[in-house]
Amino acid sequence: MASEDYAHSKGISSFKRLRSEKYYELRQRYPKLPSHYIHTACQMACSIYKSFRKLRRKGKLRTDKPLFKKHVIMLDDHLFKLDLEKR
Question: How many other C-beta atoms can be found within 10 angstroms of the C-beta atom of residue 58?
Fold first, then answer.
């Protein structure tokens, strides 16, 4: 079960709680993946679920759970270095 589905099914909007419940399972499933990707996946799942709940409360959504149309990844400076000066 993906992090966002897990967050929705358990009603978890706290990053800390989602990470503590899913991190080790995902590390075992994807041992070659850098741990930072799992960390940011939990961050994104919580962010998406919080936004979904807020819009749902305002009556702007008619669905029962978040709908994900594309796979996304969050990158930051911990994973790579961009050097625009070097050619």
Answer: 8
12 burial (CB, 10 Å; 0-12 / 13-18 / 19+) is buried
d(CA 15, CA 42): 6
Amino acid in position 37: Y
- CA 45, CA 39: separation in Å to the nearest integer? 10
pLDDT tens readout for residues 8-38:
777 777 888 888 888 888 899 999 988 888 8
d(CA 48, CA 57): 14
Retrieve residue 13's tokens.
Answer: 């909007």
Q: Where are the domains of the chain?
A: 3-57
